[in-house]
Structure formats: structure tokens, C-alpha cells
């Protein structure tokens, strides 16, 4: 189903030709779009150091932090390493393609992709379409 985000819609769902893993990735993408699209101020961003996995001041979590159990995200409140490094170092474990995770985090971080109250901007919609194509092509 499409999720109306005001000006734009979320990723397309192709259940008849997608693997369960692809559906898993699309669901995470749609959830992030719905969550941040309804209120972009819920993104957890620190202009000095980048993204927060968990922002103790607001309780907000970045897109990767939202994929983690809350207790794990809270334990990463002062973490500065990228998700790829945390996974490689065994700090966290996520059942998603690493390139997808990096794209999901870039979608979260980039102000050009979000507009209140509209949700996704045209650039954001283009980024989502790119992610969707990546999932269909490279995630098995």
C-alpha cells in the first residue's frame, strides 16, 4: 500500500514479486518515511557531531536507532561511529543490508529530503525511489 505523506508517497510495495527480505527492507523504509514524514522534528540530529542513535535530551532516535531496541539505542547515546563500524565491531546486529542502512541514515540526516508539514520533498521522494530500486535489484 501507499502511505500518503502529504505531498509524496512512501516506497511502493510489490508483494507479488518480492522476497521476504525485500519486504522486510521496504517495511523499514516505509516506517521511517511515515514516522519522520509526519513530524520531521522527530529526527535525531546533532549539528556538531552528526546523527544521534539516541538523543538523551529529546528521546528522539535516528533511523538506525529506531531499528534497535530502545535500551541498545540509549547505550549508544554518545556513539560517533557509523553503523557499518558498529556492526563490524560486533557492537550491534541488524538484519539489513549495510548499503541499505547507510542510505536509510542519509535519508534521515539530510534536511533537503524533509519538509514540514508535507513530509518528503521532491528530492526525498527521489532518494526513496533510488532506495526502492536498490532493494529490488540488490537485496535477495
Report on the structure:
With 140 residues, the chain is mostly helical. The protein has 6 helices and 4 strands, in the order αββααααββα. A two-stranded antiparallel ribbon has the order 1-2. The chain has a two-stranded antiparallel sheet with strand order 3-4. Helix 1 packs antiparallel against helix 6 and helix 5 packs antiparallel against helix 6 (122-138). Mean pLDDT is 86; it is low at 1-8.
**What is the terminal-to-terminal distance?**
21 Å
Low-confidence stretches: 1-8
Tell me the Rg in angstroms. Answer: 15 Å
Helix content range of the residues, please?
Answer: 40-55%
Largest sheet: 2 strands, antiparallel
Count of beta strands: 4
Question: Which term fits the overall shape?
Answer: globular
Order of helix and strand elements from N to C terminus = HEEHHHHEEH
- Counting H and I runs of at least 4 residues, what is the number of helices? 6
Oligomer: single chain
Structural class: mainly alpha
Mean pLDDT: 86
Give the percentage of residues in beta strands. Answer: 5-15%
Main sheet strand line-up: 1-2
Amino acid at each position: 500500500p501507499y502511505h500518503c505523506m502529504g505531498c509524496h508517497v512512501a516506497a511502493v510495495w510489490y508483494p507479488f514479486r518480492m522476497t521476504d527480505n525485500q519486504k522486510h527492507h521496504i517495511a523499514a523504509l516505509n516506517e521511517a518515511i511515515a514516522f519522520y514524514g509526519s513530524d520531521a522534528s522527530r529526527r535525531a540530529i546533532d549539528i556538531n557531531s552528526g546523527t544521534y542513535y539516541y538523543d538523551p535530551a529529546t528521546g528522539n532516535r535516528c533511523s538506525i536507532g529506531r531499528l534497535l531496541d530502545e535500551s541498545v539505542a540509549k547505550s549508544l547515546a554518545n556513539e560517533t561511529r557509523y553503523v557499518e563500524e558498529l556492526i563490524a565491531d560486533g557492537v550491534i546486529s541488524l538484519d539489513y543490508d549495510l548499503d541499505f542502512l547507510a542510505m536509510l541514515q542519509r535519508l534521515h540526516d539530510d534536511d533537503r529530503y524533509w519538509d514540514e508539514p508535507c513530509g518528503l520533498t521532491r528530492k526525498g521522494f527521489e532518494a526513496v525511489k533510488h532506495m526502492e530500486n536498490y532493494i529490488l535489484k540488490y537485496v535477495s
